[in-house]
Amino acid sequence: MTSIVSEPVTVMPIERKDGTYALRLCLNQGLLTPGMTRSVMEIMETYPGVTLRATTGQRMNLEGVPKGKLDEIVSTLGVSIPKCPPGVSVCPGGELCKYGQQNTREMGDRLLEVVKANGPYPFKVKSGVSGCGMACSLSFVRDIGLVGIAKGWNVIYGGSARHRAAPGLRLAKGVSDDEALAIIAKALVYYRDTAKKGERIGMMVRRLGHDVVADALK
Ligand code: SF4
């Protein structure tokens, strides 16, 4: 098939129970450019049965990709990688939402750089940046959460939305952008150096105890 891609899309193939594949589009902050959107639409028009579905992590999956067409579709779209790099979920924030206390998009980009700079980690790190306490990016139950308040950011660490779901530890209240990112960098290094392989931040905090972790990150 002739490539119609005006902008390549990086995808992660995921095998499904019925033998088809999903292709996860490795987006950041859920952003699909016009070029990426055209490419994805072309695939859906060319391959009937392939659909587009939003994920909970602000990414998109092309679902229903037949195994026999996987290589062809991947090479048409762009490149395939075994795992999408970490992403950050970001709500519209103060730039767009009437409730927003802090701007989220630039902070989300800065947070992503901090996450990338301090890995690799024992397991995945999911982050959410919310412009106010309504926490539409699920900041209280992400591994790393930022919640905007009038005076800055509250920093949340080790929240979990899985079994034994629980909000994370609040590491700081009302801190500036730079202060929040410095606290998060320290907390990520602690996670990297302290957790067992396969252990999420929330599991590590439960194992060690809130007080121990809070003391270590003062
Ligand atoms: S968290 Fe607050 S600022 Fe963000 S979308 Fe929700 S209500 Fe708006």
UniProtKB/TrEMBL annotation:
* Keywords from the named record: 4Fe-4S, Heme, Iron, Iron-sulfur, Metal-binding, Oxidoreductase
Give the Gene3D superfamilies listed for this entry: Sulfite Reductase Hemoprotein, domain 1
Which PROSITE patterns does the entry link to?
NIR_SIR
Where does the Nitrite/Sulfite reductase ferredoxin-like domain lie? 15-77
Q: Which residues form the Nitrite/sulphite reductase 4Fe-4S domain?
A: 87-213
Query: What InterPro entries does its record include?
Result: NasD-like (IPR052034), NiRdtase/SiRdtase_haem-b_fer (IPR005117), Nit/Sulf_reduc_fer-like_dom_sf (IPR036136), NO2/SO3_Rdtase_4Fe4S_dom (IPR006067), NO2/SO3_Rdtase_4Fe4S_sf (IPR045854), NO2/SO3_Rdtase_FeS/sirohaem_BS (IPR006066)
Which domain of life does the protein's organism represent? Bacteria
Q: Which PANTHER family match?
A: NITRITE REDUCTASE (NADH) LARGE SUBUNIT (PTHR43809)
Protein name as annotated: Sulfite reductase, assimilatory-type
Species in which this protein is naturally found: Pseudodesulfovibrio nedwellii
